[in-house]
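Task card 7
Instruction: Convert sequence to structure tokens.
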Amino acid sequence: MPTPTPRTALVALGSNLGDRRAHLRRALDALPALACGPVSASDAWETAPMYLEEQPPFLNAVCRFATTLPASVLLDALLGLETRLGRRRLQRNGPRAIDLDLLDLGGERVALDGLTLPHPRLHERPFVLVPLLELCPEWTHPELGADPEAMLRALGPLDDPPRRHGSLTSATPSALPGSSR
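Output:
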């Protein structure tokens, strides 16, 4: 039986309950089990909630890794990881300890019940586009043909732009210009 060819997975991470940074770190620590190589991640970015605005701000990031898992298996693994890390689905777009969204898997186009690739709303979400631009500015949306910077520009001026909140691989937020604690 031939060995599956690795494809690059892009996954968005978010948290707005409890120790947000610790939730993101735990998710990142668990993702190598789904990868066939290293997992790289953007910095954490603090963002205002979208869709349901009366909730705490989020910390968001995007990670990238190679995997041989099929899209549906990877999604199931991400959903299982959310549950193990404390995700409770009580309200659509509501507060959550952890959220893991599969954004893209090697440019594959998927339209199944519960799984659409590329993620159908990634191009409208600054909380995804900003860390995606940081991590992989060269990535191109398989359907729109646009890179993260172009998709971000298409949103126009942001009322409350994401704020860099430091590395997820260091103990404290970085002291980069424009970072907040």
